[in-house]
Design goal:
lyase activity, Citrate_lyase_beta/mcl1/mcl2, two-stranded antiparallel ribbon, metal-binding, Pyrv/PenolPyrv_kinase-like_dom, TIM Barrel, 11 helices, magnesium ion binding, alpha/beta
Length: about 290
């Protein structure tokens, strides 16, 4: 049974669905979610074999809730077969690439529901995450995911978008994304918050530069993201560290909550020489809630 309320979503580690070794490594890792891939990392000739391998990996996993599957996009011919192969194994969720609006998640829901029923799985327990900026059309629909069934998270991607745009450059000389890709990141974040689901940062391809990875992860967390996609097991520890509140952060949040509890009619207060107001209280309460306090 899937219950995303009890599953952290800081780190999502991709593993190709046609590699038993890499899937086993992802499942055994400290990633919050092992993301078994049936899309880009599997060539058409190996799709059928990969489906069975992914289903077997899910079935033997000690905690199925943290095993998710990236299926192929609805715009192609593979999604139905992917779902038929893996849903009965009971994955925690399905990762939908190239989503172009909340209606695509609704379509996916109608495909998953009878498969859950046939397998005796609780209706709606298989959650969905959507990649929402991989096409030009998708960029205009990131605010349409409110109320989409099963939706638990939204992420964005630069690779497929750059391919569609014909863009040879995603980042400038400083390593930062150029304008259109920063816009994609922002639209994903805004759309996820609007929909009330978890915003997830995209991958960092330079998997050996862990210092830069952690710096970027901390930066996007400060912007509002709650987790990040990964392509290599070495990236998991820096991502988990970046998206885990420090003891100092938690102590400060508790102090803010206590200050307003002691002054319930105050709209603004001073704390440690700084002015705090009700938005600071809301942020502190959210941080503590996400930390399980």
């Amino acid at each position: 049974m899937s219950d995303t309320a009890t599953i952290k979503m800081r780190s999502w580690l991709f593993a190709p669905g046609d590699s038993e070794k890499k899937m086993a490594k992802a499942i055994a890792s400290d990633a919050d979610i092992a993301l078994l891939d049936l899309e880009d990392s599997v060539v058409p000739e190996r799709k059928a074999e990969a489906r069975k391998m992914v289903a077997d990996a899910i079935a033997s996993a000690p905690d199925k809730r943290r095993i998710w599957v990236r299926v192929n996009p609805l715009s192609g011919d593979w999604t139905k077969g992917d779902l038929e192969a893996v849903i009965a194994a009971g994955p925690g969720g399905v990762f939908l690439p190239k989503a172009e609006g909340g209606h695509d998640v609704t379509t996916l829901d109608t495909m998953i529901t009878p498969l859950e029923q046939a397998a005796g799985i609780e209706a709606g327990s298989t959650k969905v995450a959507a990649l929402v900026t991989e096409t030009a059309a998708a960029m205009f629909t990131t605010g349409t995911y409110d109320g989409a069934p099963r939706l638990a998270a939204m992420s964005w991607g630069a690779e497929d978008l750059s391919s569609e745009l014909g863009a040879s450059e995603q980042r400038g000389a400083d390593g930062e994304y150029t304008h259109v890709f920063e816009m994609a990141r922002s639209l994903c974040l805004l759309g996820a918050i609007k929909a009330g689901v978890t915003p997830i940062e995209t991958v960092q391809p330079e998997f050996r530069d862990l210092e830069a990875l952690e710096a970027r992860a901390r930066s996007v967390r400060a912007q509002g993201f709650r987790g990040m996609l990964a392509i290599h097991p070495a990236q998991i520890a820096p991502i988990n560290a970046a998206f885990t509140p420090s003891g100092e952060e938690l102590a400060h949040a508790r102090a803010i909550v206590q200050a307003f509890a002691d002054n319930p009619t105050a709209g603004a207060l001073q704390l440690d020489g700084n002015m705090i107001d009700r938005p600071h209280l809301a942020l502190a309460q959210r941080l503590l809630a996400e930390a399980g306090e």
